[in-house]
Amino acid sequence: MPDMKPLSGKVMLVTGAGNGIGRAIAMEAAKAGAQVVVNDIGASLEGQRESSAAAQDTVAEIERSGGVAVANGDDVSDPEGAKNMVQQAVSAFGRLDSVVNNAGILRDCFFHKMTYENFDAVVKVHLYGSFNVSRAAADVMREQGSGSLIHMTSTSGLIGNLAQANYSAAKLGVAALSKSIALDLARWNIRSNCIAPFAWSRMTSSIKVDSPEQQERVDRMKEMKPEKIAPVALYLASDEGAETTGQIFAVRNNEIFLMSQPRPVRAVHRGEGWDIDSVTRHAMASLKSSYVPLDVSADVFNWDPV
Question: Which of 13, 77, 196, 243 could link 37 by a cystine bridge, Cβ 3.0 to 4.6 Å?
Fold first, then answer.
């Protein structure tokens, strides 16, 4: 009887797969029949290397469950490291069908206290890392005439959050990068999508708790398991997801959201053109009622997950 698993014959590379969301996606992909390259440099939340065991541990767990996987310890922020992990996938399994750009670090602080080094480090892993791995994978996928690139964005970038200028900038950049990839590579049947995940993971465990409200928020997040993110990622990697590209999804427990993308909200026109006085009296007076509020993510997702 033929193997009817949804990802049979597929090869998936998951970055940052030693823990949390990446590990859950890698394990569920293997259960769905994919051969998996598990990338993790074994870094702390701040990005310092600590141990090479994380990727190996995920591979061992996959193999115990009857799946097939190999470990990779390259750094996504290094273009050569990205090329190495893609080449490892091809060398080990003969092809590369999907990439999940999940690797990330946090260095949270308020903007007026943020150093260049902390801004640079976070952007390098999240945004440059997504570029590096996707760019290396694109060459392989173009030759195959197919592929799926799946990037982790965040409502911190799509909506906003306090004390995360570096992370928010990187994650909104990832969403724009994904859209450009979807446009540029469509002719080779390569699709590109984003997921904004809500889940308790090693990264979210670093959230500072300094009030009963924050503690309540953290307690709610602890109920959101990384495994809840995997089904959408697996769909986007599967043949069933072949017509889905250029989209941004959010996944929160048992909820799946299709997120909006920036489009004009309201317009004003003045035939004779504008000066500062008419901008003040006419343009802004008309547009002000449609201003986007200064929200944070929790203001928009302000109900308990189901």
Answer: 13
Catalytic residue of the set 116, 128, 167, 291: 167
What pLDDT, on a 0 to 100 scale, did the predictor assign at position 4?
A: 84
Is 235 annotated as catalytic? no
Do the Cβ atoms of 72 and 55 come closer than 8 Å? Answer: yes
List, in order, residues 6 or more apart from 181 with CB less than 8 Å away.
134, 138, 149, 190, 192
> What pLDDT score does 304 carry?
86
Residue 252, pLDDT above cutoff 90: yes
Residues recorded for the chain: 306
Domains and CATH numbers, the chain: 11-258 (3.40.50.720)
- The β-bridge partners of 122 are none
Contact between 221 and 204 under an 8 Å Cβ cutoff? The reply is yes
- CB distance 147 to 190 below 8 Å: yes
